[in-house]
Amino acid sequence: MNESIRTPASHATTTLAPDAAYGTARSGDTRAGDRPSGGAAPSSSPRPAGHPPVKNGRIGVLIVNLGTPDGTDADSVKKYLKEFLSDRRVIEETGLIWKLVLNGIILRTRPAQKGRDYEKIWNTEKNESPLKTITRSQSDMLAATLAPVDGRLLVDWAMRYGNPSIESRLDALKAEGCDRILLVPLYPQYAAATTATVCDETFRALMRMRWQPTLRVAHPWYDDPVYIDALARSIEEELAKLSFVPDVLIASFHGIPKEYFDKGDPYYCHCAKTHRLLRERLGMDEDRFRLTFQSRFGRAEWLQPYTDMTVKALAESGVKNLAIVTPGFTSDCLETLEEIAGENAEIFHHGGGENFAALPCLNDSTAGMDVIRNVVLRELKGWVDG
Ligand SMILES: C=CC1=C(C)c2cc3[nH]c(cc4nc(cc5[nH]c(cc1n2)c(C)c5CCC(=O)O)C(CCC(=O)O)=C4C)c(C)c3C=C
Ligand SMILES: [Fe+2]
Ligand SMILES: [Fe+2]
């Protein structure tokens, strides 16, 4: 078994031993016995001659995050960015001009520059990015909390871009006997650029399978009370640790081009609802708790208000104490640790601000794991009753 798949140690995978040759399977048997065997199976043997052993009866849970480069060197970052930025769900403009810009400009300059940013946040102990460390830990912790619920459950993790790939982990889950898989794109708010592309990639892998597992995809959880409560509790705890009281708190979400919203992507509305519910739960007004969008890329308009411009304007208007929370990120990553805690802190101080805090994402905290576990158990209903 691949080391990343976590399962209760005591549980043995069911190995199907179909007891009938082609066309004679008993009602209730799986179709594992459907391979023509060249003759009826001897009654003493449960498996037709030449029939391979088939593992099944298990239920996989595959959590999937965005992905990250394998290293901070320009080649690793280039490989990752090329895969990411060639995805039509991410960059919908696919014409010749975009290809020239991507290959002629972006992939020549951005990898070295972003590699330096990744270096600032890299997990040197494990030689990987924090996104990978945290996603693996979420998978391990989820497996531990699900083990008592149902021994058939197997938990694994994958990345949409880079490693471990979705295809490799689906194959591994199948090889372990998972004939049902719950796919959990780790995005509380749905966007075509994130959730849909995880589904696209999963179905591409399934297209190559003769015997596909039954698949479920977790619904986004942007307004789930467990999620809102976990965010609120985490914010309250983190604010209590600070040496200052923020005048303003910003909820900063990753942006998307405004054009995607105009074409019907629900992402903005999901973010706005998370923000409103959280604001109500925290008892703050709209001036004190702002909604902004970060990580703009390219020249087109993205969702507004922009985080960096809001931070600058707040500092210049005399706000001295600022905290930023990033509820759309299931784990800390380049966009939170470098862009928010690094770049935006600098913008704030440069504009005259004094105290700045970037609050941690839910990550693999107890509250964070409560959220993921709640989503998973909700989506497993009917497959697992516990
Ligand atoms: C260019 C278009 C991009 C869209 C659209 C986009 C949407 C989007 N992204 C996330 C989450 C993350 N993005 C991260 C990094 C990142 N994002 C883009 C571009 C788009 N994202 C790029 C090019 C990069 C790489 C870094 C860079 O070159 O700037 C990350 C961090 C990954 C890490 O390794 O830590 C996350 C997470 C969401 C949620 C989203 C839309 C809703
Ligand atoms: Fe992004
Ligand atoms: Fe709407």
UniProtKB/TrEMBL annotation:
Gene3D superfamilies: 3.40.50.1400. This is Ferrochelatase. Belongs to the ferrochelatase family. Fe(2+) binds at H254, E335. It is an enzyme of class 4 (lyase). Catalyzes the ferrous insertion into protoporphyrin IX. One of its GO terms (molecular function) is ferrochelatase activity. The gene is hemH. It is found in: Cytoplasm. The keyword Secreted does not apply. Keywords: Cytoplasm, Heme biosynthesis, Iron, Lyase, Metal-binding, Porphyrin biosynthesis. Residues 1-56 are annotated as: Disordered. Its main location: cytoplasm. Residues 1-16 have a biased composition (Polar residues). Pfam families: Ferrochelatase. It comes from Rhodoplanes elegans. InterPro entries: Ferrochelatase, Ferrochelatase_AS, Ferrochelatase_C, Ferrochelatase_N.
